[in-house]
Amino acid sequence: MIIDSHCHLTYEPMSSSLDETIRRANNDGVKYLLTISTEDKGFKNILDIVENYNSVYGTYGIHPHEAKKHKEIKSNYIVEKVKKNKKIIGIGESGLDFYYNHSEKKDQISSFLEHIDASQKVNLPLIVHTRSAEDDTLEILKKATQKKDLKILIHCFTGTKEFAFKLLDIGAYISASGVVTFKKSKELAETFKEIPTNRILVETDSPYLAPQPFRGKPNEPSYIVHTVEKLSKIKNLSKDEIIINTTNNFMNLFNLQ
Fold first, then answer.
1. Is there a cis peptide before residue 125, judged by omega within 30 degrees of 0?
2. What pTM value is reported for the model?
């Protein structure tokens, strides 16, 4: 039983062929999928999906790219949204993206802090997006964890080994995407080799970042098997061991035991 801990089922081309997409995933051993929120207006679609598909859970959150359009969203509003359905089990994705800077840094940071506050209020995991912002991300998360417990999932990790271990020090889980299968991702593979297996999750981030051999094509949850296979080689563990560990980690983090 594999769990895709991060996908975007409300995005094309998956949204227009949901039945087939989810069926392919289930047939390939993907029992559960977590579809991730990136903006307020799309949340209704996520609610519809989790209500209509037993194998799908969801989150509520605002992507850092969208922070400038959602300045009015505060932690209490986020809490209100996640309480709309018991299958909304996480907050995010939120965080910092200083690579593209589609929103001003101050707006990204403000939004991130509101998501952290909401996560701590309801004790739900925070799904974190971080790109070209390692120091700021770590500083913010470290300060937050010193004040109150915070469940952290770093999605689609592509950072440095040093960053990974500093995140592990504050209790974060780290998710591997299809990027780890890319030929040029040797440093990333070495990092995942050293990350404890009991702190790793797997994801597709579909429709983005399709793993080898589908790189460059629209990604989908069924392709997660290729990321699992790559991780098994990196960590010198059987495919079943990777599946059991990443599934248990997801269940523990999201309190689905």
1. no
2. 0.96
